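Model it.
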Amino acid sequence: MLVLTRRDVYELVPMSDAIELVKRAFRDLSGGMAHAPLRTPIEIPDAHGTTLFMPAFVPSLQGLGLKVVSVFPDNPARYGKPTIHAAVLTVSPETGEPNALLDGTYLTALRTGAASGAATDLLARPDARTLLVIGAGAQGPTQAWAVLCVRPIETIYVFDRNSQASESFADRLRELVPDLRARVEVVEHLEAVLPHVDVICTATTARSPLFPDSLVPDGVHINAIGAFTPEMQEIPPETVARAYVVVDSVPAALAEAGDLIKPLQTGVIREEHIRTELGEIVAGTKPGRTSPQQITLFKSVGNAVQDLAVAAEAVRRALAIGRGQQVTLL
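Modeled.
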């Protein structure tokens, strides 16, 4: 079995490549050519955490396997450890043999960023120059990296209630993007910058809206990737109602996305408001942005097709150049 570390995955699959892989995976998922059962979450009450089990098969990319990911928000304060830990196991679609184990913590951040990069490429205004990242934890830098790959961003604003996370954001982003040219500015009050930004990425574990709808400008594109359970919420219901809503998977969004479930429960929106999947826009069967003034919202709860598409490509490239470590389980 091949073992690939964080560094291996980083060097094998650049963000720009991951964006294109995720586009293909979403296209196949929406077209019924990929398979991803609803993930199985297990709540760990004593640790205030959730562990999710996520299988998928993407035949066109030979991606088959499983991701196990844990989200434990108390980890940084209690143990000095990251909030998210994960591993990805790939399986040969020819023989059914487990053939690789990859660090899933970085891969999760990479593929989640790649989804936002794909959505930004398809939905944000072409002239977008300013980005606001709300949530400077593990997901924050890869969100910014992905947007930088598809839009000429000049200024990145960063907001996090944890000052250490926001202050270290620029350094962590430069580790991923050594030739970073965009200016990074930490902000303490969202109202100072929110009305003036072109793209917003939210990556938090919030259970109530992060900002008032009155601050959300026309023409903005929002990538909301943090609220992945029905109880969580990052985006104001009024903003959801005003926006052109695109999701990664309609069944998954209706089952898990608190940003959509809560407005549905209160009657602020109806199910018809959840218009399309990102894969349908990739395939050209549904439209993207229709006007410069339109607010676009990509709501993602994450899907294992993303993980297996990127993991399968990392394994292919590693085997081609002899990268990684081979271990024997027998």
